[in-house]
């Protein structure tokens, strides 16, 4: 069941849901994934992807890690 989310950084409960460009950090490089759904902390600005946003990041990660031939845990 859904529980109220709090900021991972500062613990604030004021989170704004929006779509933004989210940087995906890979070994040796960074990929900016567009229009990822995130909860943004109103206090400190920390971005936390929502479950839908995480799904999108995971898909992008699979595509890019395949292209870059990064070893994956099996
Ligand atoms: Zn915060």
Provide a descriptive summary of the structure in words.
The chain is α+β, with helices and mostly antiparallel strands and 74 residues long. It has a single domain, classed as Roll (Ubiquitin-like (UB roll)), CATH 3.10.20. Helices cover 24% and strands 38% of the residues. It contains 1 helix and 3 strands; from the N terminus they run βββα. Strands 1-2-3 form a 3-stranded antiparallel sheet. A hairpin with a 2-residue loop joins β1 (15-26) and β2. It is elongated, with a radius of gyration of 14 Å. 11% of the residues are buried. The mean pLDDT is 89. Bound molecules: zinc ion.
Distinct ligand kinds: zinc ion
Q: What is the CATH fold-level name?
A: Ubiquitin-like (UB roll)
The count of domains is 1
Encode the helix/strand succession as letters.
EEEH
Task: State the shape.
Answer: elongated
Show unreliable segments.
none
Largest sheet: 3 strands, antiparallel
* Relative strand content: 35-45%
Structural class assignment: alpha+beta
Mean residue pLDDT: 89
> What distance separates the N and C termini?
29 Å
> CATH class, anyone?
Alpha Beta
Which bin fits the share of residues in helices?
Answer: 10-25%
Per CATH, which architecture?
Answer: Roll
Number of helices: 1
Keywords:
74 residues, Ubiquitin-like (UB roll), three-stranded antiparallel sheet, binds zinc ion
């Amino acid at each position: 069941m859904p529980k109220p989310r709090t900021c991972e950084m500062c613990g604030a409960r004021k989170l704004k849901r929006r779509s933004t460009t989210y940087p995906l950090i890979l070994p040796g490089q960074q990929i900016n994934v567009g229009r990822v759904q995130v909860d943004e902390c109103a206090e400190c600005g920390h971005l936390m992807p929502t479950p839908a946003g995480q799904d999108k990041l995971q898909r992008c990660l699979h595509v890019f890690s395949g292209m870059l031939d990064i070893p994956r845990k099996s």
